[in-house]
Design brief:
It contains 19 helices and 11 strands. It is α+β, with helices and mostly antiparallel strands and 505 residues long. Helix 6 runs parallel beside helix 19. The radius of gyration is 26 Å and the shape is globular. Bound molecules: protoporphyrin IX containing FE. This is Thromboxane-A synthase.
Amino acid sequence: MQVLGLFSLPVSGLTVTVTLLAVFLVLLKWYSTSAFSRLEKLGIRHPKPFPFIGNLTFFHQGFWEAHLELRHQYGPLSGYYLGRRMFIVISEPDMIEQVLVENFSNFTNRIASGLESKPVTDSVLFLRDRRWTEVRSALTSAFSPEKLNEMIPLISHSCQVLLAHLQSFADSGEAFDIQKSYCSFTTDVVASLAFGTQLDSQEEPTHPFVQHCHRFFAFSIPRALLVLILSFPSVMVPLARMLPKKQWEEVAHYFSSLVGTVTAAREQQARGERRKDFLQAILDSSLDEEGPKATRHLTEDEVVGQASLFLIAGYEIITNTLSFATYLLATHPKYQERLLAELDAFHGAHGSLEYYSLQKSLPYLDMVILETLRMYPPAFRFTREATRDCELLGQRIPAGAVLEVAVGALHHDPEFWPNPEIFDPERFTAEAQQIRRPFTYLPFGGGPRGCLGMQLGLLEVKLTLLHMLSKFRFQVCPKTQIPLQLKSKAALGPKDGVYIKIVPR
Ligand code: HEM
């Protein structure tokens, strides 16, 4: 017994270790797939998930192709798992209307990863519930037609800088990547409108604003960390939040102090002398009244957040919209000629550029832009989170579920858009728009939380094409990639740029 007693300790220790390991492995196995029965319980079809990562590999090519594939394989209501998180994907107009409009009070917020930091978290894009309502309503006046009209000279100035750079390509007839030129141009517009800073980023690539923009967009989560975060969100998200963020903090500090300096300088100026840009529009909309009793609707951090909004919501999307429009016009010379005729007539009839005439007198340019955004909507997916359990058109949606609108699948559905792969601006005549089924065209999202900068975005795209096509024609060349390859890890954009030639007019 003594001998047995001596041996019993190490044996039972081993047993305990083995038992614990076995329990751990069983629990891990259970955990690895336990999140993956929810879609099935809801009766929503989806690709088969892998343990821990769910359907992560389904998206290896990007979300654009994956959305089209989901629509093709599983219909307009499907789902997937990113790690443990469940997404319900919709591309059915009536269901979309239910989410964006009819049941808005239950679907007020987008999802957030929990890893975002200031100034991004202060922007209206990421705010939630009551604070979102307050900031959105305070900001709305920053996008009024009067404010947009005042921004036209500033956007036009950046357009002139772009044209000056492009002249050498027009003179030499050399093929070049116009997307790169648009990147510099949109950086200049963001600097000018949102940060009160005039610059020529192509000429000054080392300017701190340009450098900090690069750093702002260079942040990405390493793939291995992303997999861990998706697989073990409740542990990894708080841990990841604790990681030092020196680089990001430097960038945030740069933008915040730039806004602080510009704002302080403006406070010294009389109202009428202040630069009429988007930053000033935000500052104006953040105040109730002038004078010592002025009430701030937005905190200083929130003002920086809304200025950064232009960087987050406008920069890449506008660059890509311009690149796509240029590609489509170059590859469809017949439509380009029709557009040139309209623009020439416009220049003949209007001396200066006014918001009202740009809105009313360029119907074909509008049609071209709208059809570009149908074929290639840069913001092709957006989400809403269910606050409470509900039922939409007979489909049960549990609280916390994330609904993702698949704009690309909707815009390429032959039921709503015959021959969806064909570029045809005629789809957007006034008559065609009047009889279109609602919620089949959503490049700017929809409902009370739709794009707040839609008119500003359209104005920028319109002005740029107007200036560009007054001086040049777009032409394809042997380097033009036809059909255009796409990338869609974040916004939808051309994968390898857009190589074209421009010729003087
Ligand atoms: C062609 C240009 C643009 C396109 C295609 C576009 C598209 C979108 C889309 C699809 C959304 C999501 C809407 C939803 O969830 O229903 C959005 C949100 C938003 N966009 Fe734009 N956008 C553009 C330009 C801009 C610009 C220039 C700004 C501002 C400077 C801007 C500001 C916003 C804001 C603030 C939101 C969030 C609104 C909220 O949460 O209340 N956008 N945009």
